[in-house]
Amino acid sequence: MDITELTLSELSAKLQSGELTSRAATEAYLARIEAKDAKINTYLTLCKDEALAAADAADVRLKAGTDITPLTGVPIALKDIFCTDGIRTTCASKILDNFIPPYDSTVAKKFKDAGAVMLGKLNMDEFAMGSSNENSAYGAVLNPWDTERVPGGSSGGSAAAVAAALCAASIGTDTGGSIRQPASLCGIVGMKPTYGRVSRYGMIAFASSLDQAGPLTRSVEDAAILLQTMAGHDPLDSTSIDAPVPDYSKTLKDGIKGLRIGIPKEYFVEGLAPEVETSIKAAVETYKGAGAEIVEVTLPHTEYAVGVYYLVATAEASSNLARFDGVKYGLRVDEGTGLLDMYKATRDKGFGAEVKRRIMLGTYSLSSGYYDAYYMKASQVRTLIRRDFDEAFKDCDIILTPTTPSAAFKKGEKTNDPLTMYLSDIFTISCNLAGIPGISIPCGITSNNLPIGLQLLAPSLEEAKLFRAAYAFEAATDWHTKKPKL
Amino acid sequence: MTKFETVIGLEIHAQLKTNSKLFCACPTVFGQKPNTQVCPICLGMPGVLPVINEKAISYGVQMALAIGCKINARSIFARKNYFYPDLPKGYQISQFDEPFSEHGEINIETKGRGKRTIGVTRVHMEDDAGKLQHGESPEDLNSSFVDLNRTGMPLIEIVSEPDMRSADEAVAYFKAMRDIILYLGICDGNMQEGSLRCDANVSIRPVGQEKLGTKAELKNMNSFKFIKDAINFEVARQTDLIESGGAVIQETRLFDPASGVTRPMRTKEEAHDYRYFPEPDLLPLLIPDEMVEKLRTELPELPQAKRDRFITDYKLPAYDAGVLTASQDLAAYYEDSVKLFDDPKTVSNWIMGELLRLLKESSKDLSDSLVTPEKLAELLALIKDGKISGKIAKEVFEEIFTSGKDASAIVKAKGISQISDAGELEAIINKIVADNQDSVERYRTGKTKLMGFFVGETMKATKGRANPGLVSKMLKEKLA
Predict the structure, then answer these.
(1) What is the ipTM metric for this complex?
(2) Which fold has domain A3-254+462-481?
(3) Percent of all residues in chain B with a pLDDT value above 70, rounded to a whole number
(4) Domain at B422-479, CATH from 1.10.1740.10, 3.40.1190.20, 1.10.10.410, 1.10.260.40
(5) How many CB pairs under 8 A join A and B?
């Protein structure tokens, strides 16, 4: 048995039955990372000693049978956007190259408290800005299905590591598709919860009103287990939702008889790769077969989503990234003679090109004289997009779309054309603007052996329904069992 | 020649007396070692988030209610973006187009314009920045240091309408606001430590002109005197400028207390574009009606109301009412004393005359004083009953102030009770009359002014203990 091929829930069961130890699982993953990660570059920081110590502590509890959760002793990894007490956290940026937080993000703390073993910190697009993971200051992440291709972004390291079995599961963040899009391109499950369902405390902010943490896993059940641990109100995050967290595993396998699945016509547009369209249509048939009712719905403001997103997200980012000024922590480049020179040199050397581009875009849209036409207008249209979903969900329980217009594209293919790159998030962005939950699950393989993803969306706080719908598809197909040969 | 009118608006910043900062749990004690009162949140470390301090909201609402503002049930925090080393987040969390309160006013007494109402545009809440210290390192005088202890302290900003017409009016307004703030107990009012500060927008315009002139914003005035000096300097500067054919430019100017002048800090062109936008890390601030009404019932009697009541209820002159209501403690002391000795004006005289003088001379607070209302009332009763003279009473008062003993005990121990026994005085007066026959003759021939001399001699002979009224009466009979 190769331990690293088990899903999280399978591994968890073996740890609890005593068939496996956490040390054995942790060592297996560390060995595989050692052997394989050089090919795809997913880990920015490997926490070998800490992981083994956590594994041994978990084994003690597993043996004693005390204080056990489904994650006790399970080796996972975090996107390097989550602050981890005493462990370097870079957000894949040179400006935080030397940053060691003196605090844990709430997400990191919850996994620590649940007894999970953290193997390390995963590569990403710098400050979560990107759709291909080519914007990391520490080198691009490559797709384990084809190392000529990108894994998607910004949680590219989190998706590739799970697909390549370099951790049992990982945690990413999703601002405009940054969990679902790489999950789709890497052939795994990626889930973005309702905005506010998971605390953002200690998660380095890109666009505060859109950012949300979520799991990347090899099965829907694994995603439900991880969200169960992550979700809930946090007194440290005023925007986290104070609502009870249902037991997701309990209703996971309840089936979808009578579930109304809406297909938005605006998502089947020019530019959608034929192979993707074919897979999605087949998926719709699968759902029909499983007892779902298919209805057509409309989301009329879809065409504005990308524009709205790049105004709102960049505006918030321009402000969120102001704190990286060389004064208090991280990089300081002391060039020139005064404060202004230091600011300029630090931010010039510290930030990559895409981050600078978005800071400039956001600064512009908030500037006096442009605010009304850009930021404010975008905020108004955002409300219309949210209403689209409210209306659509009157006619259906779940919305089904492709996750991305195409399968994984080649490295370098879109780097010179930011606009084309931005369009790869076209199907995932509206979900963040509306604040609703979404999940991407594997639904096909292209002729050149690349995974295709299917996206399901649900109304706010209906994660249980989302998991149930996703699980029904997974149970009826075997796409989730396909593995890359790295 | 054109006559100009001064137009002034003030922006007052008051640091709220909460135990913790506005968005984190750090303490708010003043004067700690640099950077010891900080945490990841107020240091603006990556990924941290603000959580609003509920107490600060209550304090802010109380202030807004005290000056008649409307409370907005829903308001929005906004980010004010600019780069400076004392601002760790790179933005201040403030309120912009949707503040929690608007449209208030207070009344002030002006010199020459009578009672005036000064409008309050808004009161909003924001967090404070830290402090820079320049060149204090022995090895490198050119270096600067950042102290972030003050970062994140809760502030309210009270913005006035441009309703003041002189430096004196601006100071009167600021003083009135300070009194209210102190009555509410929401800020310690310490201007030296910076917990209460203000900026002034100053412009001039020809008398009769509606349109406002170009304003200068004055900063760095941490005393009433500096506010007055800075505004007066600025008005003179702007007047000279316009009269000599120049024009005022919109700019921020710093007051230099040492030289008494204002100097340009930054012009409009150099002004920041703050790029305000709604703070996405905080939900809209909701202030329910029930909370507003509860806080309204908890409001203390405010300085103006108390002053008016003192004038009406105690028939005090406005001056006395003003002095006695300068603080809630003093006003309470006064009212407690009047309850025990029902002669409001006499009580006022003794507090304003003796008590405040001794407190000032000894640099003590009212709370340190040993003269309780009970002790003061006992002393005043002794005077009223003719047991001691007013003059002696002042000595007794001083002794109570230092020793805390009861007036009657002091009087007894020192044997200084007033002599109101005609029999006892008879012999003394007879002797004075006998010893001063010349003066007696002159008095009887019309030099009645000599009465003062006889009274003085009697007082001297009794070491001031003789009842002055009785002495006068007896002397008149003897000399008739």
Answers:
(1) 0.95
(2) Amidase signature (AS) enzymes (3.90.1300)
(3) 98
(4) 1.10.10.410
(5) 103
